[in-house]
Amino acid sequence: ISRDPNPIRQQILAEQHVLNLLVEMLSCPFQTWNGPFKMEDISVLKRGSAGSMRLANKMDYISHITRLAYNLILNICVNNTTNQLAASRYFPIFEKQVGFDLGAEETLTKLLTDNEQLLQSLPTETIEMFMELLVTRGKNPQYLQFLRSICTCSGEAVSVNLDRLYALLFKKNGNNNSDPTTESVLIQTRVTDSL
Prior knowledge:
- By secondary structure, this protein is mainly alpha-helical.
- It contains twelve helices and two strands; from the N terminus they run ααααααααααββαα.
- Strands 1-2 form a two-stranded antiparallel sheet.
């Protein structure tokens, strides 16, 4: 990602609807959007037989192109609130690709970072999805970074997201006990007397 993007180039790419084309590229190979491949093929593909080796090579290409597309989306949107807002309408597509190491996690995190308008309108379902990923796939730093990024904006707390995250972390089940998923997400600590 370019540290100092050229605003004129960003505007030209936006006016040429490159963002729309990139999102179409992200979705067209997968069955979710009538493509030939399953999202799971990327992450669970086992190399072995000649048939699966051919599929593995195709998945490698698709995975690489997808990461490049996400990188270009970030370049179009970095430090450009207008383009970030335009990209936000594609969040549902990005969210379906989270957890498959395609670059969706990083893209969502960077698009939301310090964008108050997007942070305030972030759906609870998105936060729940990242919490579920922490439970099912472990404490991946990208998932934790996402949750961290939605809690502050320009050094100020985003109370609506903090409240939602708190409610998800410390929800109670019917017996007034902590939800079992809480234990798998939080790190247990204790105070000791020794140094």
